[in-house]
Amino acid sequence: MDFAYDARTEELRAALDTFLRDHVYPAEPVFAEQLETTPAWERPPIVQTLKAEAKRHGLWNLFLPGENGAGLSNLQYAPLAELTGRSPDLAPEALNCAAPDTGNMELLQEFGTPEQQATWLVPLLNGTIRSAFCMTEPEVASSDATNIATSITADGDDYVIDGRKWWSTGAMAPVCELLVVMGRTNPDAAKHRQQSMVLVPRSTSGVDVRRGMRLFGYTDSAHGGHAEVVFDNVRVPKGNLIGNEGDGFAIAQARLGPGRIHHCMRLIGMAERALELMCRRAVERTPFGKPLAEQGVVQDWIAESRVRIEQLRLLVLKTAWLMDTVGNQGAHTEIQAIKIATPSSVEWIIDKAIQAHGAAGLSQDFPLASLWTAARSLRLADGPDEVHRRSLARRELRAYRKDPHAH
Amino acid sequence: MDFAYDARTEELRAALDTFLRDHVYPAEPVFAEQLETTPAWERPPIVQTLKAEAKRHGLWNLFLPGENGAGLSNLQYAPLAELTGRSPDLAPEALNCAAPDTGNMELLQEFGTPEQQATWLVPLLNGTIRSAFCMTEPEVASSDATNIATSITADGDDYVIDGRKWWSTGAMAPVCELLVVMGRTNPDAAKHRQQSMVLVPRSTSGVDVRRGMRLFGYTDSAHGGHAEVVFDNVRVPKGNLIGNEGDGFAIAQARLGPGRIHHCMRLIGMAERALELMCRRAVERTPFGKPLAEQGVVQDWIAESRVRIEQLRLLVLKTAWLMDTVGNQGAHTEIQAIKIATPSSVEWIIDKAIQAHGAAGLSQDFPLASLWTAARSLRLADGPDEVHRRSLARRELRAYRKDPHAH
Amino acid sequence: MDFAYDARTEELRAALDTFLRDHVYPAEPVFAEQLETTPAWERPPIVQTLKAEAKRHGLWNLFLPGENGAGLSNLQYAPLAELTGRSPDLAPEALNCAAPDTGNMELLQEFGTPEQQATWLVPLLNGTIRSAFCMTEPEVASSDATNIATSITADGDDYVIDGRKWWSTGAMAPVCELLVVMGRTNPDAAKHRQQSMVLVPRSTSGVDVRRGMRLFGYTDSAHGGHAEVVFDNVRVPKGNLIGNEGDGFAIAQARLGPGRIHHCMRLIGMAERALELMCRRAVERTPFGKPLAEQGVVQDWIAESRVRIEQLRLLVLKTAWLMDTVGNQGAHTEIQAIKIATPSSVEWIIDKAIQAHGAAGLSQDFPLASLWTAARSLRLADGPDEVHRRSLARRELRAYRKDPHAH
Amino acid sequence: MDFAYDARTEELRAALDTFLRDHVYPAEPVFAEQLETTPAWERPPIVQTLKAEAKRHGLWNLFLPGENGAGLSNLQYAPLAELTGRSPDLAPEALNCAAPDTGNMELLQEFGTPEQQATWLVPLLNGTIRSAFCMTEPEVASSDATNIATSITADGDDYVIDGRKWWSTGAMAPVCELLVVMGRTNPDAAKHRQQSMVLVPRSTSGVDVRRGMRLFGYTDSAHGGHAEVVFDNVRVPKGNLIGNEGDGFAIAQARLGPGRIHHCMRLIGMAERALELMCRRAVERTPFGKPLAEQGVVQDWIAESRVRIEQLRLLVLKTAWLMDTVGNQGAHTEIQAIKIATPSSVEWIIDKAIQAHGAAGLSQDFPLASLWTAARSLRLADGPDEVHRRSLARRELRAYRKDPHAH
């Protein structure tokens, strides 16, 4: 048992930390200013600058295993994902490590044909286009992929897609050229073999990117929003299928594990940023003649935040290690556990940081309200926490159902 | 001891309930639609329609004691404020019972000169103009009014105002013609006699309504936003002073008690609305083959929500009764207690209603995210909860400091 | 709506408060000392002294409506029950207002025959004997009285009782001469008509008072403990039946409402006592050079305790008022709500008072650990909170099941 | 970074697990039965049997580094301490790994003279005597060792000890022959050099073991209770000093780190045991026609318990690893963090296990109430959590005090 990061990880952490200090944090106010005048759903220009800079520093596609990326293990990438979470509006995209492109690149790398990779993976790896993942639907419980109702029907050399998706993050943006769509190809197959995934160019006729869903008033415009997309008789060639018919569920599962690690580590980075802001505020602000830093309640928040963060990080890192050593299946309980533990704890921490800032903490003058919204959303994204809690409990109870006296 | 509303209250509750069902709830989707095309900081036209309708039904200025209003006690108005909280974007304004006009009308009625009343109170009572209350400042702890730094300096027949305010709700809107400004007239006076209040027409030279503060991602545009306002050498005649020089703090305190009741009762109405939406969703939605309404965790949320609401309502009503019977001073502890108890509990309830709705609950498709933001904001408005908790504790400890063996 | 106690209540509160100060609080250390040398399951002699004193002051049987008692309404008795909770080891018994005698006297008064009343009610009213209520059974979920398995079989002029009960409070004590036993007389009747109640002298052959159940480490010896009682072919004359065969469930329900009020109000009294101790400690103790009373976290506990107590008391009082005005049935939701809200909140308050006392708070040197145990137990007594929460939620959901769009 | 236990640890874990199954769990009911008839403060005979058995299996003094013990690192011993926590009344003592002997043996091994070791360490290592640690005093805040008031005065060849201690765990038992006493030798020295530690045979004249402190009604009789001990002119030879005069504080600190690891890991073992009991109960019990295991609220408790346990264990293991690699000083924050996180979380878990058991969970029929009391006590032992939270916060804030813009 060893709790130290390995040398490669430490080296990349140092490089990334320097990059954040030199380029990303200073870009934050520029981004906010440019945002006021950038047309809806387009990126402020500073984002492009940062991407070029990151590429130049070799901080590019760090998330991706294999030759196309940095070739890091989950355990090696996790602490880097944490660092990007410190500036979540800028750092992940700057490094070409932003969802949902990360998951889409992973699946194209693992399951894509050479043609699919040439057409879509290459520009994604280069950061010249963005992509969206169209899975969740308004009418069904999104926490169970087998509920998906969108139909993908074979018709001659094509597939025809009909259905309605929402929360397709990034799809409002013109730069998003690719939609990865999950649908049902065979309603008569076994439950987990009914689904398939197809690649749909956003410009395909019949694709109607209808509106952006808001999160607590935020449009997330600079990230292409969260689109409701209607697919009405959308026709793509059969060559756009990823893997085989019926592989959709399995591919979605494969995509899930690393994504969970990324999300959770970024959240931990957000929590560290929020704690940092809380500490700064605490030493700078002196209402009623005593610095916040000397008030017991604020100290309590700070201590509790630190203690929670340490626990969360260890849990996520152990999960990454398990995925690397025994695979996603063997890490199933832990992958659920980090989803249960992380968003709610991070939400708590950011809430306290907001409270320490007074009304300013609710406003655009600090990143806290936006960070909070990210954490709150992740209590629902990928299925509500409650679904994961129930599932984890059932697994825990399994041994006792066979033998109530199991130790 | 008697826990039943009196006859007049019951009659008005019934009338208001009917008005909500017949006019306000149906107007909600219209409001949302009009909002998309209404210029920033202006009211969607449906608001005007509702105001006319409410006036026609005699549901107008219910909050105001005395002849100018409905002449209700705090205890009688409180349950009506609760009902308006069920549709907080529309009902309070429709009935001309929206903050901060309510507090401004109260102080003009109680402390205004006949000239001030003719100029400002009459159009406010008629609902033809709106007003703002400029108190909180970016640089000082807003929970203590004696910290106010904006200066109001006598100069000949005028007062000259210099300072910076923010969170001046409503002030972004052109229809807001009056700013009630709290500032310091005499830095050498006793601590609570340094402040004064003056009436400043929004169009006065030197008034710079600079930007709207956001709450999470919301601008609250349809309500005139929350403005940062800079007063740079702003000159108003001395006749614009409310009461006497040095009365500012006392007037602000007088304004506070009823406002606290209104805020808390509206929050309780929001909690009822959220609970209602949660129950509806619970019976309609059947993920994983079992209605949410039969899932233990959701039942737990519903029960806890009901139990909390009942307790909160009784506490606020008792506080209103105390204010009516022994005055604001005698109700001091309770006025703090409702501020401590209500926003955080209501926030909890709305959070659970959101969770029951899945990602839809975070979006513009339900009022929940917006309701939640209102509750969250009130953990900071009027001073952070923590300040009130500390103050209430000190009062509780007072007897023991004199005699540790006090029973 | 009126939140003031009536004159009779105020008068009795004052008298009881004086009695507590003059007699009960000073008796507490005496009780603790006598306890060390009193044989197990017997009362320390000071209890008898206090009973005589209370009777002399006319503070006797206050709980009982009608001529045999003080004739108070639930709403009038509730604040007196609260005061007895301030010294729960002594005051309730001193006033002959201790459970389970209170419930047993109520049912004997309401449903007993003249013979039963002469034999059992009179000595109970005089406080010369004690009684127990044998309902809960080890093998069934005690939250549903229809689960009761103990059999009561008619045999000639007798009933024969067989079964096992536990948590029969008081039954370990010799002074407990009467067991009120709930059992099943007719397994074929409708679900709520199968049960009956019989009076069983504790000395009857076949009654085996087997052992005292402990609560955490407490035996509650001075109150006759919490007995496990085996009934093995126990024979009593048919005249010992209360009411008619099949009335058991209905009688148990009638007994429940007032008991819930008593329990909850006593808990509130315990919370007040704990808060008082916490405040005293806070002003007296100065670790690390600053009084606890000036430490933010302790202030937070004190404020939160006060705010919770005020809400709980109002909820319980409203419930008492509902029972007085519309009956137990009409107060059903509220009777559940106070069970859900009170024990857990009071437990929280006492926990904080313990924490403020350091390790002393866990020990016999303060009443806090014992008070805490009482509150913790009541999260389970009368059925776990979770059962009541589920039931309240179902009731809340009822309207929506008929019409999901109910407002 | 590697999250797997090393081979030696795995081997010992397996051996200890087998020992628990074969010997300890079966001994639990025997212990409970013997306890009823064992004289106060003496060990039930089964304890001696288990000690012999453990010795025979080589599971003896596992906690102790160096040649006298098993020579394990903190990281290696930690998971074994966890396993002993599964049966905390029996396993730690059976393995001669029970507090406070562990800490006392550590300090005798590290700081004792050959004579002291021959007289006291040898019989402690053999398990033929027990010892107590007399540090906490009734009148001072025990969380700061510099507050200690007991005086140790040099007088000729002797030290004379005067003072009052309490919570001296184990000291009520005759088998406890040694008291390690912390006191003040030089009130004029620097703050952390005033204290010294001396060895006092329990039989020394002037040692008055006055009474046992109770924890929630428990006497902990079978473990020698928690004594209040008065030292009245107690005289011991100067050779009984441990280390040098003024070393007391430093020795106490050295003793603290490993003890914290042991306590926390045992608590985690208790939490695992409680979770196990909760799961068993959940599959066995079917109130209202549905197994507890299928009720959402119970599933929620189980999932949350698992998620918390995993996080706690990782945090404690990392702390042990830090102590092994960078020393106690470098692990300071983490040693505080585990004290803050563990007792309160484990208390929560055990509380839920109790609730799932109904009233039985509060009683002597299950170990849960006793386990809960252990966890609750540890929120205060070694200083209240609040003190550690404040201290950790100050450390966190340190960097910001120097530079508010620290990242």
TrEMBL record, chains A, B, C, D:
<feature type="domain" description="Acyl-CoA oxidase/dehydrogenase middle">
    <location>
        <begin position="132"/>
        <end position="234"/>
    </location>
</feature>
<dbReference type="InterPro" id="IPR036250">
    <property type="entry name" value="AcylCo_DH-like_C"/>
</dbReference>
<feature type="domain" description="Acyl-CoA dehydrogenase/oxidase C-terminal">
    <location>
        <begin position="246"/>
        <end position="395"/>
    </location>
</feature>
<dbReference type="InterPro" id="IPR009075">
    <property type="entry name" value="AcylCo_DH/oxidase_C"/>
</dbReference>
<dbReference type="Pfam" id="PF02771">
    <property type="entry name" value="Acyl-CoA_dh_N"/>
</dbReference>
<dbReference type="Pfam" id="PF00441">
    <property type="entry name" value="Acyl-CoA_dh_1"/>
</dbReference>
<keyword id="KW-0274">FAD</keyword>
<dbReference type="InterPro" id="IPR037069">
    <property type="entry name" value="AcylCoA_DH/ox_N_sf"/>
</dbReference>
<protein>
    <submittedName>
        <fullName>Acyl-CoA dehydrogenase family protein</fullName>
    </submittedName>
</protein>
<comment type="similarity">
    <text>Belongs to the acyl-CoA dehydrogenase family.</text>
</comment>
<keyword id="KW-0285">Flavoprotein</keyword>
<dbReference type="InterPro" id="IPR009100">
    <property type="entry name" value="AcylCoA_DH/oxidase_NM_dom_sf"/>
</dbReference>
<dbReference type="InterPro" id="IPR013786">
    <property type="entry name" value="AcylCoA_DH/ox_N"/>
</dbReference>
<dbReference type="InterPro" id="IPR050741">
    <property type="entry name" value="Acyl-CoA_dehydrogenase"/>
</dbReference>
<feature type="domain" description="Acyl-CoA dehydrogenase/oxidase N-terminal">
    <location>
        <begin position="9"/>
        <end position="127"/>
    </location>
</feature>
<dbReference type="Pfam" id="PF02770">
    <property type="entry name" value="Acyl-CoA_dh_M"/>
</dbReference>
<dbReference type="InterPro" id="IPR046373">
    <property type="entry name" value="Acyl-CoA_Oxase/DH_mid-dom_sf"/>
</dbReference>
<comment type="subunit">
    <text>Homodimer.</text>
</comment>
<dbReference type="InterPro" id="IPR006091">
    <property type="entry name" value="Acyl-CoA_Oxase/DH_mid-dom"/>
</dbReference>
<keyword id="KW-0560">Oxidoreductase</keyword>
